[in-house]
Amino acid sequence: MAGCAKRCKQGLVKCVLSLYKLVTGTLNKDKIDDDFELSIVCHRPEGLDKLEAQTNFSKQELQVLYRGFKNECPSGVVNEDTFKQIYAQFFPHGDASTYAHYLFNAFDSAHSGSIKFEGFIMALSTLLRGSVREKLTWTFNLYDINRDGYINKEEMTDIVSAIYDMMGKYTYPALKTDTPKQHVDAFFQKMDKNRDGVVTLDEFILSCQEDENILRSLQLFKNVI
């Protein structure tokens, strides 16, 4: 179970760090560059005060995030193809398209086929500065591919396989044919408390809160901004 949980959380951690660097434009910049970028921000989205109240970001942080978002997505919205193209640059040695598809669907909570800044920033706020329960709930929704309120073995196998594909040749241990199944079996052995073949949100949160490795990985988000 530890290996499966660790691998899945590593995928999510890399997702958040990559997305944050993407929207702030800090892939090759230091703090001085960020401060300069902040000073030249002049355009901000409608409802900035409302977003500040709804998220855990300050107004200045929202300005920087919005500028980065607009630089990458001038139209102000991101469709799935664009999201995949942007995300793929962070995993040049693997195929991130399937994981990016699942990730896009998690960010597209309105099922509109696109991600607007407001929706993106709400999710980012949860992942970076939300409570443990909020972060775990978001993660559960990512793994609940068909959004029926449960994680089944097929969904978890798809997620684990997508993470291996994303990591590419750097996957360790090297992926064998039965590796995803082994991880999924271990996942359900620990998380499926009542042995009914699916994992509910409550089971998922309880099991994650009992796992120190998962809790430690969630703490990584605190240092992103």
UniProtKB/TrEMBL annotation:
Source organism per entry reads: Oncorhynchus mykiss
Q: What is this protein called?
A: EF-hand domain-containing protein
Cite the entry's keywords alphabetically.
Calcium, Cell membrane, Ion channel, Ion transport, Membrane, Metal-binding, Potassium, Potassium channel, Potassium transport, Repeat, Transport, Voltage-gated channel
Q: The EF-hand domain covers which part of the protein?
A: 131-166, 179-214
**Looking at the keywords, is Cytoplasm present?**
no
Superkingdom, taxonomy of origin: Eukaryota
Q: Where in the cell is it found?
A: Cell membrane
What would be an example GO MF term here?
potassium channel regulator activity
Q: Which GO terms describe its biological process?
A: regulation of potassium ion transmembrane transport
| Family per record | Belongs to the recoverin family.
The UniProt record lists the keyword Membrane: yes
Q: Which GO terms describe its cellular component?
A: voltage-gated potassium channel complex
One matching Pfam family is EF-hand_8
